User: Fold these one by one.
Assistant:
Number 1:
Amino acid sequence: MDTKKNSIQDYFTILWIATRLGFTSFGGPVAHLGYFHEEYVRRKKWLDEKAYADLVALCQFLPGPASSQVGMGVGIIRGGVIGGILAFIGFTLPSVIVLIFFALALHQFSFYDASFIHGLKIVAVAVVAHAIIGMGSKLAPDLPRKAIALLAVVVMLVWQTTLTQVIIILAAALIGVFFFQKQEKEETVNLNLQLSKKTAIISISLFFLLLLLLPLANQVSDWQWLAMFDSFYRSGALVFGGGHVVLPLLEQEFVPTGWISEQEFLAGYGAAQAVPGPLFTFAAYLGTVIAGVPGGLLATFAIFLPAFLLIIGTLPFWNSLRQMPSIRGALISVNAAVIGLLIAAFYQPIWTSTIIEAKDFILAAILFSLLAFWKLPSWVIVIIGLIGGILLPYLPI
């Protein structure tokens, strides 16, 4: 499988650096990519600039949490599959632990109606609004792509089912194949991979096998753990655009079915803004609310497994794939549809269940302005949101 042997020291270094990044990487996927660039390209020089840019491009193309996949990819390039696993564990574990403890505390003390929880929900409003504006300017810059985003909003809000997001993404990809093909060739770089094509084929086959068989198995079984694994795996496998976009998928999977209340869902989503590392670790909170600590660990494994299988399965073939005009065209259109899905999620359930009074809107506007214009880090926004939530009931508005 690997073309060279790695020492225990190499593996420890991968784990140590990823863990340090997991404790300090606040600010969401774009910020994570900046932290990775500083650490892996500038300081450690594990990749050069072009190799890192190619890896980021691949992970933006794949479904799943792009920044987490970049971290996994760096680990794989440096230390093979084991290196990828260690990089994932280090970057993910800190936020998983915090969110599991938050879910346990929320359940133990039942403070769902506490004012600071409402403050966390308002934080979510500001953060998602900021993400929509930032991503929208890059992924839907022209009228055709804005039209795709608008159509995605309408369909997502009118037809709210667990399959709607998947259908929107597939339809957008088909539109992109016909209307957004880019003919120019891109310069490529040969990544020094410790990964065979045989391993890649096995990994990508397993990805599709699980995606096909888990729902079928769930249909003939009433085992809750299988149902949880299927829901989280499907959410991780079919979401494009990163952590914010997984919100509508997870909300559709767990709130209408009664596994978790909308109040619990939004409280956890707000809390997820307060921790460093990938937003996909929100799954750890959901799993813990549903089935305790084992549920949190299962949910984390299930939602990240597709990302890991995909990065292993595509890295050896990326250079040839990215030269296909149809692939690039599909990606352009899917990214535009992602903006529409974000807007739909922003309205329902985030806005409709959070911004009830004028003072809620005022706090959301303040938090958004501090985040977007004053460029305060997200952890500061969370603290201000918590304090603001506590003070809101006392404001004479």
Number 2:
Amino acid sequence: MATDHGAPGRSIRQGSARSRLRVAAFLLLLRLCLPPVPALADPGAAATPRESSYFSFALDETGAPRYTQHLFWEAVDHVLRYRVEIAPAGGEVFLDTYVETPSLKVHLAPGDYRYRITLYNLLGRADLQTPWRALTVLRARQPRIDEVSPSRLFLDQGQSRILLRGEDLEENILVTMENDQGRIIVLEEQDRRILEDGASSAVGEEITLILPVGTISPGEYRIVVENPGGLLQSLPFPVGYQKPLDFALSLGWTPVIPLLDSWFTDLWDDGIYPVALTLQGDLYFVKGRRSFLGLGFHGSAALLGGGQDDADLQATILVAGLHGSWRYRLGPRLALVGRLGPGLAYTTMDFDYRKAGEGPSMETVDPALFGGAFLSLGVSRNIRLQAGVQLQAVFYESQTAGFVSPGIHGGLYF
């Protein structure tokens, strides 16, 4: 069998039915091989998906990328070697080489090329030659970020977007936030605009990116900007809180509803007693992405009137103590607040007997327990409103008094 090696696409003469079947099989396999591959040039090129194997690059001793284009095709049985010819589009062949495996690594500059492959059988003769195929090598660009605004993220400011200004930021650019623990957060592009032309020949652009603040934890991050060709730039981007400590102070109206031991519910049987106030303060010093932890103090005062058939009773109950505080951010202005802690209750009771007149007053100091859950709404930068319910239990010598207090609070948050 023989063929004219200089004529593209000419088939060899076939001397037997077996040879014709073999060539037909070759043609069927080659229909799917060698699609036009957008390969990358040195110093760069646009883009194939990151997970493809069409190209790779390595940095030389100066830090410049050197790109390698990988041509590969379907392997064919009983082939001794492959001849690969590469030429500029419309030009003469400048690369003519033989390989024994169905792949070739080359280093091409940006431009338009054509290539063809000739298959040699086990006798060393050309068996089949593909038509010329187009090959386009695109240029990859090195992104350059001149400004990140803001340069760091304060979670307590509710910032949800950042602005990148720079040059050579390609359309399919990938922008991520990455930390040393291997966490990667992809930032979605919201807007892009071209900047006025400057002295540089590169295209200046401004990109607005959305920050998923609900999934970002405090820590040291980097903004990584990667063009499709694989060239990238990394900039530090710390994430934290502007203040290491937060302090909240609130005053609220908290009417009390007696419950628990029947001795108290029988004495105070009006159901609800509206004359009651609560003062609360919280200092948060452990601040996570959404959860804050701290300590606080509480104080409450309530006036209760009641009695039995033969006597009227007026009581004042003052409760004060410390508590642990937990704050969970539901959004930039909304939070869930929980408090729990011990305290002391100072109780005075005045008896007025209908037949015998006023009796002696009673004063006691007893242990107490305080807890509550509230929904907090920020109406301005430092003003918060809270609505919720708190529970108090006072452990007298032989009885336990409990009080449920739904209430509304207003206060300051610093």
Number 3:
Amino acid sequence: MIPADALLCYCRPGFEPELAAELGERAALAGHPGYARTDRNSGYVEFLGADAGALTRAMPFDSLIFARQKLARFAELRGLDPKDRITPILRALEATLGNTYTFGELWVEHPDSDEAKPLAGLARAFGNALRPVLRKGGWLTQFDDSRKSRLHVVFLSGDHVLLAIGEAGDSAPWPLGIPRLRMHADAPSRSALKLEEALMVLMSEKERERLFRDGMRGADLGAAPGGWSWVLMRQGLRVISVDNGPLQDKLLESGRVEHLREDGFHWHPRAPLDWMVCDMVEQPRRVAERMGTWFREGWCRHAIFNLKLPMKKRWDETRLCLSLFEERAGKPLQVRARQLYHDREEITVFATGRLC
């Protein structure tokens, strides 16, 4: 069992209150109450409790919505000497973990905030200096091994560092919890990045292989100019793009996309589809109820949709909308939700009646 004194989670800057509220509620429901410590726009939240190790086990990363990354923090080092930051880190490792623990990777990071971004150069240079020292001391495997847990060294300032552990399978596999995606030249809009990220974050590789097969049929509600339709098409689907607005001509030339000039919020298919996706700008409760209706009526088997959140009480609205969705669906569903890197004032939801 890995010792921890706090749960450390990264988030989108400005959403620290939402993440803190989510962690507090989930911890209380699991019987492990604690308290959150954070600053607005810092890009991270620390959650402390009597048994931080139990907290990390009680809140699987896949269940968290506003967290980009989930780590078990085991040390906080302040007042580091810029001439020797390595020695205090080695002492903290030995004091907490002893001499028998070996990590598969070292990630030296900083929060994704405006205040912390200038630390990027320091983080890179320090990682290059610390990595060989850890390998020589047996703290780090000689070659990166993503199957083992990771050591995270998180710079909050030049003399303030957090040490944390990321467990393989219970944390994001990308530095800062951000999958780095590039805008494809053929994508009709940047919104395509949101759905591409959703497929990476909300589904495993095995699930993607089973739930997306060539020849499947899907619908994109509120499709124009066609970013999400383009992603579905690249997954092998034949797509009905529903929107009164225009689509990119290349989509229609592909032969895989049919454009219906109708209101995506009210349209529904005559026969069941494999997939439905939706990124319409509409009140989140209305969207949640409409998405639930799609499952209740059997119009789709799987769906990915966005819920645009209000400016205040966003965690409360998130809980309410997800409850409305499942209540309206009226059947057992697997539901995962996350505020993605490419999201803004919204969360992305994946729902399915069956998984691998």
